[in-house]
Amino acid sequence: MKITINNRSIEAREGERLIDAALRHGIEIPHFCYHPHLPVSGNCRMCLVKVENVPKLMPACNMHVAANLKVDTAAPEVARARQMVMQFLMLNHPVDCGICDKAGECRLQDYEFEYGVPRSRSLEPKHRKRKLHVLSERIQLDNERCILCSRCVRFTREVSKSNMLGIVERGGHAMVDRATASVDDAYSDNVIGLCPTGALLSTDFLYKSRSWFLEPVRSVCTGCARGCSVEVWRRKKEWQMRLLGEERNRSAYRITALPNPEVNGPWICNKGFDLHKVMARERVSSAQVGGVPASVDQAVDRAKNMLAEANSPAAMVSAQASNEELDAFAALAKALGPRLRIYVREDCHAAPGEVVEDNLLIKADKNPNSFGVRERFGSTRLDAAAASQHDLILIWGEWQESVDLGAATVIHLTAFAAAGPQKPGVLIPLSTLFERSGTFSNFEGKHNRFDAVFAKPEFAQHATDLFARLAP
Amino acid sequence: MTPDSVFHNFAVTNTSHSLEAYRARGGYQALEKALTKLAPSDVEREVTQSGLRGRGGANFPVGAKWSFVNKKSPVVYLCCNADEGEPGTFKDRWILEHTPHQLIEGMLIAAYALNVRHAFIYIRGEFDLPLRRLQSALEEARTARLVGEQILGSSFACDILVHRGAGAYVCGEESSLLNSLEGRKGYPRNKPPFPAVRGLYQAPTVVNNVETLSDVPWIIARGGAAYAALGNKANPGTRLFGISGHVKKPAVYERPTGYPLKRIIFEDAGGILGDKPLKAVIPGGSSTPVLTAQEIENITLDAASLQQAGSMLGSGGIIVIAEGTCMVRVLHVLTRFYSHESCGQCTPCREGTAWMNDIVERIGSGKGVRADLENLQNIPAGISGNTLCALGDAASMPVVSFLKKFRPEFEYFIEHGRSLHEGRLEA
Amino acid sequence: MSSLQQKFEELSRTYPPQMRPSLVLPLLQHLQEEKGFLTSDDALAVADCTGVPPVQALEVLSWYTMLYRKPVGRHVIKVCHNITCSLRGAERMVNHLQRKLGVKPGETTADGRFTLLTVECLASCGAAPSMQIDNTHHDGLSEARIDRILEGIT
Q1: Which of A34, A307, B136, B170 is deepest in the core (most CB within 10 A)?
Q2: Which of B8, B12, B81, B90 should one mutate to test binding to chain C, selecting the residue with the greatest count of C CBs within 10 A?
């Protein structure tokens, strides 16, 4: 159907909200409480627009399009209403920008510059509220900064359904609060991105960097077979400075959700928000032969010989591997011939207390590419009986198993120094998720690509290169 | 009941609220007529023809509200709004204390028209005698098979349940009332959808004021046309006007709509205490714009006349203020009230009511400055029409009208740091 | 069976079965009648009973003026200070009670007998000034009438 916005005729869809129809055509109607994936609240009053033949301004978030609707978002009374809403929001809002992590990516800040008045007209002292409160281990809540848009409450009520958050007290005393200390939420950190001000902040990221020093790189979470799209934030090249040191120049400062309608919608789970911690674990920093540090070349040569000479070699493929790496391994396997038995596995398992599977995003398989592995290599698993038939086992990826590998010699290719199988004959360090690019296939077979965030360190090998070198 | 009176047509005693007394004055005959001679749609038609408008303050045509309900829905609810809280209003209390069966009968007839099986009365948590009398009336009604199954031997069944509020003025707003009834905070809802379409637990629901529902038996007994012939043509009938403040005989008076405001103050209510001159009148509950003594000269108590004068009929709570009263202090009482009652959900009301109160309080403590008056003009302009419910407008109108009509008093207080009238509130 | 459970079962019989959440407020009011004031544990118990999320019962407890979250005196005196009552002497009544009881609005007497509160319109403007003591309404107040009323309270 056709509707008119600011004298422009635009095409709108049946059942669409005015605010969405406008945005689709590049007309931004400012808003705080509205979010396309949350139930409508209509409380911020920022999206008020003028509708022909209606005496009052109407919220665009709660209006469905109708044929011949005529809307004006540029009228002087609309500008005045926005100005007043901003004045009301800023009335008691602490001007914390100088010490608030949200600065630079804060909707309240942006709208204040665009729609507000330059000076407050209030002569009253600001009303104080609870500040810098430990909402949970992961989230800091500042009730003074909060504009009570209720996005966070609606998220925990309707999306994660944990009902972890609510708004208590009446009128001007209203404040967001946590139900009880025992109510928790595996998706809690989504409210940090939802919050249009610095009221809800990540404790992990607190005070680590100004937002404008950072840039996002698209990646994929490896925490489970959903493979949610994420953004990994690194320091922009022009903001990397010698005085900061290697670590601060080259680290992943935080993870945020990257909306992906095909895979995860707008959300990720807390494990996704912690992805950078997984990648920051202690690395295998040197190749080893026979338990003794060696050069990569030495280790590669030794491994190549072992593979050529073994009577009954086996390989355990990694479900953390990208499709490109799996293809490279398939080429190696072809070159090595049918002598090589290939086994599949889930490298990583749920930790005690971790959510196994739910109705939202979390899958029981804690690896990003079991699908890609299954596609190429089937589903045979290695048990003690099978292991006893092999004299050489190449293990690719992390080792969380407890299978008895018998007397087989082990070649272990892995990035992290977590406990491995019995002393491997050869150990070769690999690059991490952040140091390479590729694609995973999630549990539904959907491809999702991730880009390299950093260059790999000298000592680490890309699996794709390594497999090419290991071929006879 | 009598031809021109719906309420004040019997002697109030300490038993006149009983079922027996109510029956003696013709009670429950309208219900019988409805159940035996009228179809539900006939009942609605009579109410529509009567021109009855909501008596809670919104003044919305009752028949129209009822018509929005899809009676074929599996569940339809009726809620009586007995959360009387508009300052200056005390008429629903009168009905509940002295003729609660009239409300019950009205609710039953409405329930019949709307296909309601479960009806609720959301009542002020503070109410003492009104609650006790209502509860005993319901007991009597249940025992007499007027409420419950097979009412008056017919196939019509309806239960009425009393649900107490707990101290929130905003719960008198119909959608806030529904949220409160559902076990939540009384946050008003976005509209659309309206309660008649999606109300209590998302089912179609009609919310009507106590007086509104109590008008229904008379309308069914004597016909909608007869009601439409009473009072003012554009919004007909009688209303229970509560008049209070600096008058000699504050009370509830039933008068036809269109009754002269001056008459109700100086005749019915006996004039001003101490025969002082009149200073101001708030005509329809504290949320309606205040009028000066000069302004009320020709005003009649109907919507058109009051609107023309820049005010509203509202809830019919007339508050009378005598000469010598400090209007700054009076306004502070109101700004304190609205900021206390703001539910906190939407930006302009939550922040704006507190801001206005801070300013008026500061002026009233002698620390006002000139810039305050500019703010007191701009803030209501930013609230009015921009809020999620009418509480924002209700809070704005006193500020706008007091400043408009009594500006010199505010200027004096700011200039001299004290009240022009020694801070006087009493007459 | 606890008194909460008893009241819950009693109310469940009067409300339609699909309206269990509606019992949150009446149950909190019932507990307050017994205990004088409510804690968040009471809200959690009511949430448990009615099946609403704990946070909802906590929100309700914090939002309604008639629900007390701090201990109150054996009797709570609530004096209306809204417009008509103010026009008819509410300030005088409050001052009188302040002097008489030795507390300010919001406070409880040292002997734990009375808590004094100011409240908003009680819808009895025709007989202003008005007050309530616990569930009992008193209007047409004067200093002398207040004295007589208080004398009648143990």
Answers
A1: B170
A2: B90
Chain A closest CA to C112's CA: distance in Å?
A: 26
Do B19-228 and B327-416 come out as alike in CATH topology? no
Task: Give chains near C: 3+ CB pairs under 8 A.
Answer: A, B
For chain A, the residue count is 472
What local confidence, expressed as pLDDT, does residue A472 receive?
87
Mutation site, A155, A159, A163, A182, interface C, largest C CB count within 10 A? A163
C2 exposed, middle or buried (CB, 10 Å; 0-12, 13-18, 19+)?
Answer: exposed
Please report the ipTM that was assigned to this predicted complex. Answer: 0.98
Architecture per CATH, B327-416: Up-down Bundle (1.20)
B351 touches chain A (CB under 8 A): yes
Alpha-carbon span C6 to B414, nearest angstrom:
59
Cα separation, A127 vs B358, in Å, equals 11
The domain locations on chain B are 19-228, 238-322, 327-416
Chain A residues contacting B via beta carbons under 8 Å: 40-46, 48, 55-57, 59, 62, 80-81, 83-85, 87-89, 91-92, 121-124, 127, 147-148, 167, 169-174
Q: How far apart are CA A459 and CA A214, in angstroms?
A: 27
| Closest residue in chain B to residue A91, using alpha carbons only | B351
CB A191 within 8 A of CB A156: yes
Structural contact between residues B245 and B320, judged by C-beta atoms closer than 8 angstroms? yes
Instruction: Tell me which of A415-419, B3-7, B368-372 is least confident.
Output: A415-419
pLDDT at A409: 94
* pLDDT at position A285: 94
Minimum mean pLDDT among A405-414, B41-50, C76-85, C105-114: which range? A405-414
Residue A420: what pLDDT? Answer: 75
Composition of chain C by helix, strand, coil, percent to 5: 55, 10, 35
- For residue A36, give its domain range: 2-74
The architecture of the domain spanning B238-322 is Roll (3.10)
Tell me the average pLDDT of chain C: 97
C-alpha span between C119 and C104 (Å, rounded): 13
Instruction: Examine residue A103 and state whether it is found in any structural domain, yes or no.
Output: no
> Which residue type sits at B119?
A
**CB-count exposure of residue A240 (10 Å: 0-12, 13-18, 19+):** middle
Q: Is the pLDDT of residue B281 over 90?
A: yes
Mutation for testing the A interface, residue in B386, B387, B388 having most A CBs under 10 Å: B386
Among A164, A167, A180, select the one facing C59 at the smallest CB separation.
A167
- Domain final residue pick, A10, A41, A74: A74
Which residues on neighbouring strands pair with residue A214, listed in sequence order? A235
Q: How many whole angstroms separate alpha carbon A131 and alpha carbon A142?
A: 4
Are A179 and C55 within 8 A, CB to CB? yes
**Amino acid A406: pLDDT:** 85
| pLDDT the model gives residue C65 | 98
Q: Do C64 and B252 touch (CB under 8 A)?
A: no
Q: pTM for this structure?
A: 0.96
A404: closest CA of chain B, how far (Å): 58
What confidence tier does C100 reach under pLDDT thresholds 50, 70, 90? very high
Domain containing A336 — which CATH number? 3.40.50.740
Q: Say whether pLDDT at B20 is over 80.
A: yes
Residue B391 has pLDDT above 80, yes or no: yes
Encode pLDDT of B245-270 as tens digits: 999 999 999 999 999 999 999 999 99
pLDDT of the residue at C1: 77
| Domains located in chain C, CATH noted | 3-63 (1.10.10.1590), 75-151 (3.40.30.10)
Instruction: Say how many domains are in chain A.
Output: 2
Is some CB atom of chain C closer than 8 A to the CB atom of B127?
yes
Domain B19-228 matching CATH 3.40.50.11540: the answer reads yes
Low-confidence ranges of chain A (pLDDT < 70): none
